[in-house]
Amino acid sequence: MKLYPFTKSFNLFVAVVTTIFFLTACNKDLTLNPDGNSVGTLKNTTTGVCLPVNINGIYKVDSILTKDNYVDIQVNVIIAGNFNIKSDTVNGYSFKKLGTVGTGLNTIRLYASGKPINTGSNTFTINYGLTNCSFTITVFDAGAGTSLYTLGGSPGNCSTSSINGNYVVGQATTAVNSVEMTVNVTAIGTYIITGTVVNGVSFNASGVFTNPGIQSIFLTATGIPTTAGLFNYVVTNATTTCNFSITYTVTITNAIFSLSGAPNNCTGAVVSGIYTAGIALTTTNMAIINVNVTSPGIYTIATTTVNGIRFSAYGTFNITGLQQINLIGTGTPTIAGIFNLPVIGNGNTCSISVICN
What we know:
This protein is mainly beta. It folds into 3 domains: 39-139, Immunoglobulin-like; 148-248, Immunoglobulin-like (Sandwich), CATH 2.60.40; 256-356, Immunoglobulin-like. The chain has 1 helix and 24 strands. The chain has one helix spanning 5-31; strands spanning 32-37, 39-42, 54-56, 70-86, 93-101, 104-114, 120-128, 131-139, 148-151, 160-164, 178-187, 189-195, 201-209, 213-223, 229-236, 241-248, 256-259, 270-272, 286-295, 297-303, 309-317, 321-331, 337-345, 348-356. The radius of gyration is 28 Å and the shape is globular. Residues 16-31 have low confidence and may be disordered.
């Protein structure tokens, strides 16, 4: 049968349109679910804790939660689309957020609603696709007002006593990544210390001061560092500010340092807490020693076990020079007496003395 030019053109047109339709349909299947919902996974640890998680706001009994009460979590999105992430309801309140999200790593802010009923720690679970993770909120007593305090070292360098954890490019920070610093409390109550995001990471803290005076608090890091190098962080409590530096590395490197006083008694060491035979040590049992850092990196400093107890600390030296380290005691003294404990770090040793009653 002979085909006329019009028929040939029409058949060619149909073939082209059909090809475009199938190509478009295939491409659409790769980028969007038919139901419009996104597909991905929650970032979490091997134990199921949301990673990273940034908790904001003060949570008090019988106080209605506001837009200042939220939790930031992260999701890896494979197919863009809608999402509806919500937690279970625990102790009278919950968290949720719905919207749309693009592909890649996304930070989702879940806002709280409801009113806490009782004080204590509340653990929430959220789900996204086939994955889930959890985070914990601390609820304080309703009578806790807003505290009055100043940041140690303000308006200059924060009075930091330790920088804990490893800071490696591409590795999400965890609860181990923290900065210990002092504050001077003049009126007890709730507190919030915030910092801006620098190099993909921020440092924040919140809680309740139950006693006045100079005391230590921990700022916890949240985020994933993007670049190696030294970065400065400014934190504030709205009335005072101070700053500290964090060194990020591409790989985990060991610090180079010496123990002050090695190989004899640790120079300027201070042992605190009460030591009684048969009674286990607590976090109040500490030994402060001095070290001289010549190259930043991770460190581990520990004593040998003597009379059933030992002291240890680990973390990251972010700057060089003389620094103080708090060694935390563990174990239970077996007998009374005076005991010398060798402190070992980076291949050198000094010693401290502990009196047990």
